[in-house]
Design brief:
364 residues; mainly beta; Immunoglobulin-like; 3 domains; eight-stranded mixed beta sheet; five-stranded antiparallel beta sheet; 2 helices; disordered N terminus
Length: 364
């Protein structure tokens, strides 16, 4: 009989221990991780759903290829909602790539497109190849019922205070607004001097006009800087509290309208024009109150010779006068002259002339 030395036993035990490093792992069930950022927006007769697809399964295995999704909705009667797959009415199915944004449009059945508003809760369930699911997404809330009237007949034009928008009128309703969206299409090639040091307009901006007490059919966008190109849309949106949650019910958006909002409006007429004879300088000094409008580039001085019976002539030359004063040295003592001043903005728009003033340099 062969006797094994103790040292050899130690080697045998060590080799046996190496074979038991870890327990075998069960195969993955390929259950996609449930969606947790589902959002919903009701516009017209359908609901837009959006979410980010998961990247992994529930056991941390990376998903491969399009994943099946089942979309459904429930109509809760109370604030607390408990998801039940048997009560969730099917809205559709789709396949979506892992780790990418997903969008699905759910068309509402006829009974949910009419009548007073009520709450809807949408869910997404991602299915494994075997048709199993790890559970529903979060609830995304929307509104059933008749949507606000579509916004139509949008017209835009520039006015002195900004851009005037007009649309079709509709009955007022609680929580109803007209949502105006403005998108900057192009900046002016030659910015005005008063704009160069400031911030450019925002690429996109939204303005809500209250329609809860009446629809004016028009609004002025006071924040629109002239000499820019914009694209506008309008949309009626009703803000509601349903089942204890705030949701929006929107009508169809108008067709976009683009406008080159050129400044064609002259600045205010200069005021408080005064003419004073200056014997020592052999001149008639003119002064007026400076215009507070930052768009004003300068002023133009006009003169009419009373004795000669001539008409108005531009006295200040081709370039506008930057200061709010002017000296007329080209005069004959003892002869009456009538003066008037206009303002010019940076687009070359000129105001009407001021009230005329008369003065003469006394004869020595």
């Amino acid at each position: 009989m062969r006797i094994v030395a103790p040292a050899a036993w130690g080697g045998v035990l060590l080799l046996a221990g190496c074979g038991l490093a870890a327990s075998p792992q069960p195969p993955t069930l390929w259950l996609p991780t449930p969606v947790r950022d589902l959002g919903a927006a009701r516009v017209g007769d359908r609901v837009e759903l959006n979410w980010k697809m998961p990247r992994h399964t529930t056991d941390k295995v990376e998903l491969r290829g399009p994943q099946r999704a089942h979309i459904c909705w429930m109509q809760p009667r109370r604030r607390n909602l408990v998801f039940k797959s048997t009560l969730c009415r099917a809205a559709g199915k789709g396949e979506f790539e892992p780790d990418k944004p997903a969008v699905f449009f759910a068309s509402l059945p006829p009974d949910l497109k009419q009548g007073p508003p009520s709450a809807l809760a949408f869910f997404v369930e991602l299915e494994s190849p075997a048709g199993k699911t790890a559970g529903p997404s979060n609830a995304a809330w929307a509104a059933a019922g008749a949507a606000p009237p579509a916004a139509t007949d949008l017209q835009v034009r520039t006015v002195r205070k900004g851009v005037l928008l007009r649309w079709n009128k509709a009955p007022a309703a609680p929580g109803l607004t007209m949502r105006i969206r403005r998108t900057l299409v192009a900046l002016p090639k030659a910015p005005k001097a008063d704009r160069k040091m400031g911030s450019p307009p925002a690429p996109e901006q939204t303005l809500d006009v209250d329609l809860s007490r009446g629809d004016p059919g028009a609004a002025v966008d006071h924040d629109a800087s002239l000499d820019h190109t914009y694209r506008y849309t309008v949309q009626r949106v009703q803000r509601l509290t349903l089942a204890g949650r705030i949701v929006e019910l929107a009508g169809l958006q108008s067709q976009p309208v683009t406008i080159d909002a050129k400044d064609v409006f002259p600045p205010p007429v200069p005021a408080d024009v005064v003419a004073v004879a200056d014997d020592l300088a052999h001149a008639i000094d003119l002064s007026w109150r400076p215009d507070a409008d930052p768009d004003v580039a300068g002023y133009v001085v006009y003169r009419r010779d009373v004795a000669a019976g001539s008409g108005w002539e531009r006295l200040s030359g081709h370039a506008p006068v930057v200061a709010s004063s002017f000296e007329d040295h080209d005069i004959i003592a003892g002869q009456q002259y009538v003066y008037a001043v206009s303002a010019v903005d940076q687009d070359g728009n000129e105001s009407a002339r001021s009230a005329p003033v008369m003065e003469a340099l006394p004869q020595s």
